[in-house]
UniProtKB/TrEMBL annotation:
This is Uncharacterized protein. InterPro entries: ATPase_AAA_core, DNA_pol3_clamp-load_cplx_C, DNA_Rep/Repair_Clamp_Loader, P-loop_NTPase, Rep_factorC_C. Gene3D superfamilies: 1.10.8.60, P-loop containing nucleotide triphosphate hydrolases. Residues 38-155 form the ATPase AAA-type core domain. Coiled coil: none annotated. Pfam families: AAA (PF00004), Rep_fac_C (PF08542). GO terms for cellular component: DNA replication factor C complex; nucleus. Keywords: ATP-binding, DNA replication, Nucleotide-binding. Residues 231-286 form the Replication factor C C-terminal domain. GO terms for biological process: DNA repair; DNA-templated DNA replication. GO terms for molecular function: ATP binding; ATP hydrolysis activity; DNA binding; DNA clamp loader activity.
Length: 319
């Protein structure tokens, strides 16, 4: 069976990580001090889960199965009630380790999406069972993690990879898989992956499955929700004060089935990476985009708002 790229190229041990070398050194130091209770902060696709799994392999040995009875992973937090944390977790923490001279490991993925009451349960478990259990957690927003829980763990921030680091990862996979892409395509996918290593690898897997030479036009179709070529036309119409043309194009995207949120999110990504807009204009457009995205998330999602946005965008680009 063919192995998915995200699994095939996932770092297995700490030595396999090619970015955040300072962070890896800190983890090794904490491990040597037997102080492994850690909370990793990072965006989706930043490598939080891969890092935690690498720590587990380093701790128990490379051959450890991640579903071993000594490891409890909680990553469906939204579906579990407070009773689950009070019973299953405590039973796990109270029983002895099955591996000699090693603690058990409790992994808490996305701890910031559970309520404060449930977080209090974990805080109490750390107080009572740290002699028997290592607690490894991840989150994307520390403001939603109670202070008393953070104070009991080593809080480590995972920096987003730079474009150069993303490019190095992509080149390594391209060479290993014999994928035919040019430098223009390489630069494009590094920009549109939004700093996510997972998304970047998924793009490369799509290229591999296509089994053909990848040019910019094909990459644009494969790697973007809405073609950036369409969004470039839309921007051109707005810059030329052609309101009817811009509205016709944006409405054609709605007819194709894209939601208002899809369109705005894609345009947000486009604005960040396009060379057709001056940096000063980008700085002015992004707050406008954020305003309309907030309207759709907090108030309502109505197609008429795209017309208002387009009119505002034209006025902004004429200044």
């Amino acid at each position: 069976m063919l192995e998915h790229f995200t699994s095939k190229y996932q770092p297995k041990l700490l030595t396999d990580f090619t970015i955040n070398n300072d962070l890896i050194d800190i983890i090794r130091t904490l491990a040597a001090m037997d102080n492994l209770n850690m909370l990793f902060i990072g965006n989706s696709g930043s490598g939080r889960t891969s890092l935690i799994q690498a720590i587990i392999r380093e701790y128990y040995g490379e051959d450890i199965k991640l579903n071993h009875d000594n490891i409890l992973t909680i990553n469906t937090l939204k579906e579990q009630g407070i009773s689950y944390y009070r019973s299953e977790v405590k039973i796990f923490c109270q029983t002895s380790s099955l591996i000699k001279n090693k603690k058990k490991i409790l992994v808490l993925d996305d701890i910031d999406i559970i309520n404060e009451q449930s977080q209090q349960v974990f805080r109490n478990c750390i107080d009572k069972y740290s002699n028997n259990v290592v607690f490894l957690a991840s989150c994307s927003n520390t403001q939603k993690v109670i202070e008393s829980l953070q104070s009991r763990m080593n809080v480590l921030n995972i920096k987003s990879p730079s474009e150069e680091q993303l490019k190095n990862i992509a080149v390594r996979i391209i060479n290993a898989e014999n994928i035919n892409v040019n430098n223009e395509v390489l630069s494009f996918i590094v920009k549109v992956c939004n700093g996510s290593i997972r998304i970047l690898i998924n793009y490369l897997e799509k290229f591999k499955l296509l089994n053909k030479s990848i040019d910019f036009e094909l990459a644009n179709k494969v790697c973007t929700n809405i073609s950036f070529i369409e969004l470039e036309k839309y921007t051109k119409y707005c810059k030329e004060n052609k309101l009817s043309n811009a509205l016709k194009l944006i409405n054609s995207l709605i007819v194709k089935g894209y939601s208002v949120t899809d369109i705005l999110d894609s345009y947000f990504t486009f604005v960040k990476i396009t060379d057709t807009l001056a940096e000063e204009k980008k700085y002015n457009i992004i707050p406008l985009l954020c305003k309309y995205i907030a309207i759709f998330h907090d108030i309502h999602e109505d197609e008429i708002e795209l017309s208002f946005f387009t009119n505002n965008l034209i006025n902004l680009l004429q200044e």
